[in-house]
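Justification of computing resources. Each target in the renewal requires a structure prediction run like the one illustrated here; the chain below, 413 residues long, is used simply to show the kind of job we budget for.
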Amino acid sequence: MPNSATYQALPINEHGIQVRTYSNSFVATAMLIICIFSFVLQTELAQYVQKTSSYHKPYLILYIGHCFYIAMGPLQFILELIRSHWRSRNQQEKPNFGQQIRDTWSFCNKHMKRSLIVLETQVRGPPLDQQPRLPSQPLPAHTIWFGFWTLLILSILFTVPTYLWYLSVNLISMSTLTVIFNTGCFWAYLFSIWMLGDSIQLSKLIAVALSILGVVVMTLDQDDLVNSTLSARDFSSSLSSVIGILVAVGSALSYGYYEVHYKKFATPPDASVLFANVMTAGIGLVTLLVLWIPIPILHITGFEPFELPDLHTFLTIAAIGLMSVVYNASMMCVIALVSPVFAAVGVMLTIPVVAVVDVLVTGVMVTWMTVLGSIFILVGFYILNKQISKEEAQQLDATTLNADPDRHPLVIA
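Resulting C-alpha cells:
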C-alpha cells in the first residue's frame, strides 16, 4: 500500500507500469484553488439571489444544493474513464470504448470496496471473522451498514453548520458573521488536537492566529458592523444580535467538528480523490433520500412554510448548488489528503479573493485595512503550508527508512 505522504494520481495498471505520483500538499493546493474560486462564484450567486429575490427558505435552498452533490459520482467516473483512455494510448492493442468503460468501472468498484473495508477496520477494528476478502467479492452486510451510517452522520453534520449559517444571516451583519464563521480554523485545530492527536506547534498556532487576525482587521473596516452595533438600542434588536452571534458561533464550531470528524471517521489511511468524491456523491444521495424529513416538519410548525421557487430563482439556486458541489468536493479532498486545519485556514483565502472580485465588479477600491488583513491571511497560510510540507518530508523520510533500514538517511531540503 502506498504511503500516505503521496497521492497516486494515476493508479498502477495490471501490467505494473510505474505512474507519476504527486505530494499530498501539491494536490491539496490545486484542489484548494478550485475550492476558492468555486466559493467565490457561489457567494456572488447567493448575493444575487438575496438582492433580486424575496425567496428566503434556508433549509429548502441548502437541501436543493446538497442534492446536487450526487453529480460528483458520474463526474468522477468520467474523469477516471478519461484517465483510462489516456493510459491506453501507448498500448499496442487498444481496448474499445465499451471495454474501457468496463475496466474503469471494475477499477472504481475494487478501489471503493478496498478503501471502505480499510476504513471500517481503522474505525471499528479488525472484523471478528478475520477472513480477508478480495475486492472482487461482495461486501459483507456489516461493511455496507458501516458505509451507510458513515454517510448519514456526515450528511447531518454537514447540514447543521450550513443551516445555522443561513439562520444567522438574518440576525447579524454579514461582516460579523464572516469573522465568527472563519474562526472555524481555530475550532478545527482544537478538535484536531483532541480527536486526531495533533501536537501543539507554535508555527500552527501562529498561522491560525494570523489568519483570524486578518479576518478581524478586514471586518473592522466595514461600516455595517459599526452601524449594526449602534442601531441595536432596543431590547428586541439586542436580543436578536445576541442570538445571531450564538448561532454563528455554533455554525463555526460545528463546521470545525465536521471537518475533523470527516478526517478521523471517513478518510482511509491511503486517501484518494476518488474515494473523497464518491463520499461527496453519497452525501448528496443520503440528503435526497433522508434529509427531506425536516421540510414537512418546518412547514407544519410554521418555522419555514414550504414554497417552491419560480423558474428563474430555481435556476439560480441550481447554479449555487453546482458551485457548492465543486466547493465541497474539493474541500473534502483537501481534508482527506492533508488536514482539517490546512483546509480551514486555506479557505480563508476566499476573503481577499472575494474583495478583489468585488473591486472588479463594482469598481470600488479596497481600503488599506482590507489589504493588511489579506496580507495577514496570506502569511498565515504560507506558514501553515510550509509546516505541513516539512511534516510530509519527515513522514516520507521515515517511511523510506522503515522500508529499507540498511539504506542511508535521505536529506530532504
